[in-house]
Predict the 3D structure of the following.
Amino acid sequence: MKIIYTTYYLFVFIFMLLASRTLSQQVNTSGRDSSLLFPKSYGAFENYEFILNGGTISHEDLVNYPGAVLGRALPYSTTAKNRYQGAVYFHTPWYPPSPSDQYADDPAYFINTIQVSPYTIRASKAKYYKQIRRSARDTLIDGISYRGSIHVDTEEDFFADRIALPELIRRYTGLPIEQVTVHWHSGYLNPLNPGVTIHHNFLLYYIDPRGIKQIKVDRIRFAEGERYFVHLVDDGYPFSYYTKKGWRSPQHTYLMFKYPRVFDPSAPCYLADFDTIGTRIYHRAKEEPRPLGGEEVYVKKLSAIMGLPKGKLKGAMRLDSITVQFVVLGNGQITMLESMAPLQPEHIGILKAIKQHSCVWPVVWEDGRVLLFRRKMVVYYHKNKAGNMKSLDRLEYR
């Protein structure tokens, strides 16, 4: 009998070990194994219309236009009746180029001292930001002039799982980056969400390979030789409002950097002026907003912003509190922050910290619509005999 049980448990152990190894291989290869995504053949935009300098040409005629440059490739609407799947736009040096990128006039962006593209900065998570520094001084980097710069210091280990675009193209296509144009998008394309066509500055784009769903390559013959157009479909592509799942609330970074020279770095998701006339503000909802990461993390973040000491408190302490309220807007910003009682000197620091750490409040949805929600909460804190605040204790909702 013992031999039977021993054999049974040995069989179960071996089975689980093999299953574990198989699962591990599946997890490791998902979105990472270049052999799974490596294009086996190249297309040639067979079902796309070629448009040069505003007029349609045949694919074969492109070689007759020296100096022609690829602008962008966009699919046509699936609802429109058109014999083409989309269009590829080209221009010669004397013709106005395709519409400039929507962030072409943005300042230079840096995450923890590393320069990144306007799209990459929007893929970061504002809830981990420690500090934002903005300079209005024009700067020249690698021959490109930028109108100012924005430096983000963050607790997020942003580059841990991301790789620069040149390495990603080499790993997943084997093509030299000098001969490549990349169309990076989420797979859900429309005029409001066209993705980005990348012609240069590839080193400024950092992508997490785990989000890649598809890679396709189209080969194009120019007068100067062949070039390759890489279609990069990535779940990690930073969205604004529209995704394949429909309308979604924007990432806080889209709100923050929509007008990068205007927002307040010390209160990046706080709206100072808001008109409440004719606006309904709710006090109750099925799912009321809570800070991303939870209340304990939120309180620790406020403490760090205020520079309160860490560790065990020494001496006699007294528990006190401040009751505040603010409105969570339909785009993820907060506004109308105020204390519900006369302000004490130590309360000013709490209000400033709430404004600085404002990019953590989710939009309130109920029955398919967005609600403006008034969040009232009590922040408890300890202070010593001299009345100096020493630590934040907790928060409770009212």
Summary: Helices lie at 2-29, 34-37, 118-122, 165-173, 252-256, 295-306, 347-356. The chain has seven helices and 25 strands.
